[in-house]
Amino acid sequence: MEVTARHDFEATALPQIDALYGAALRLTRNSAEAEDLVQDAFVRAYRFWHTFKSGTSIRAWLFTILRNTFINRYHRANRTRHANADLEAQLPALGVEAAVGHPTSSMPSPEVALSARITRERIMTALESVPEDYRMAVILADLEGLAYKEIAEIMDCPIGTVMSRIFRGRKLLHKLLHDHAVELGLTEPIDKGEPREQSAGNTVHLQDYRMRGRA
Amino acid sequence: MSLEDIRSECSDTAALLQPHVDGELAEAEQERVAAHLECCRPCRAAVSEQQWVRATLRAVEREVAPVSLRSRILIDLDAVDREAAPVVSAPAVKRPGMWSRMLSAVADAGRGALIMVPAGAVAVGLFLVVREGLTPAQTMPGGLGSALASAGDGAAKQAERGTAAPSGRPGASLPPMTAQGLGELQLVRAEVPGALAPAATGARLRYQIVRDGLPTGQHVIDQQAPAGLTPVGTPVEFRGRRFLVDQTSGGEPAVHFELAGVSHRFVLEGGRRDRDFSMLLELIDQELDHGVTHPAASTP
Hints:
Chain A is mostly helical. Chain A is built from twelve helices and no strands. In chain A, helix 2 crosses helix 3 (31-47), helix 4 (58-74) packs parallel to helix 10 (148-155) and helix 8 packs across helix 11 (159-183). In chain B, helix 1 (9-21) packs parallel to helix 3 and helix 2 packs across helix 3 (41-59). By secondary structure, chain B is of the alpha+beta class. Chain B is built from nine helices and eight strands. Helix content of chain B is 35%, strand content 20%. The N and C termini of chain B lie far apart (82 Å). The interface between A and B is large, with 69 and 63 residues.
């Protein structure tokens, strides 16, 4: 490969190594596998470096390769079915609130302070237990700060799907971390008997949003 | 179950709560959601829940990739470059992927890690060529460690040596390396600092890479110094030995290691860091191996 290409790659792509490694750790749940995954992804990226369009997001491009490498490496078959099975197994435990978007608890206002008392390790463990597609979406949105559009490109799905994956992923995470907080006595358990208000909000269908997202 | 299936008035807004949390709504939509949140406590709570998870994750301290991972990747990139370059180094082209396999067990050594060589694995191959490069009066039985020592007469002693064929070397018991086609290092010049030189000054050896008995015109410099100075470079493990790799200001690959109290920094003259690291490592490793596999060579 040309010297300039090598130089560009080292200057542009390689600095993303920490971000890719962090995501790979969450995906593989194992530091040795994460290293191998990142190594494979960078070598693959280098081979296809000529396909990267300068001016576009290097992170989105690299995460696309990372995700594809991960899927090729670890999930040659039945990946989607397993992910859905994971989710279906978890939904009943979460109750209908998790699905419709109502909170799993009445958030105590100082809950942000709560996060300081939940260890980083616990947060990461919770994240790693979220089904893969949701996990990936949450990693890209909340750890990497990518926009829906970029995530949609990386995950090769519509923006509406990205949104629902992030939403559900966060929902699951909240449930897991909230339960942990209850164990620690940091917050009250969820009161299932609490009456829920029904709102009469404006009606905007997800399908409409998807159409806008594609436009 | 998908969001569309859920029969709830709030579920319609739920589709907008998410982009609201992530700041992806147009202004008009933001206002609409804000108005809804004003009068809907559950949706407000749902938003705060999402915001909380988002804020919690964003606040989490990020991982830093191990230094060794970067080295592994760079060496892999070297291999890709070699595949793409047809004329460069035949052996490496024949063995794509070798580096990643060899280095797959790289230890996360951290900065400052130095080569660990078993006591018996003294770099006899290197020592031998050092001695060959010196006149009999300057023979230094201690090998490179002694080469570092002052020659004692106040002036830098130099030993010049041509690039004679292997058969011409005195006491040459090094096996020919032509089987691997990589070549071997042959000393052409040794500069040994005198007593007046600063304490940190060490010997400087210049080798020519000889392949199939023919000089290639490529040179490797071994700049020595007393061990224990702060080393610079990225740790890599290569065939069980640890090295630090970095580059010169001119972009030439440099490999650093310590052995028997002597710090060595090998630089491939005119080499390119983007493709020649692996060759330099292999050459050094090969020379170190001579010491292990041919102990007789250490006898003067």
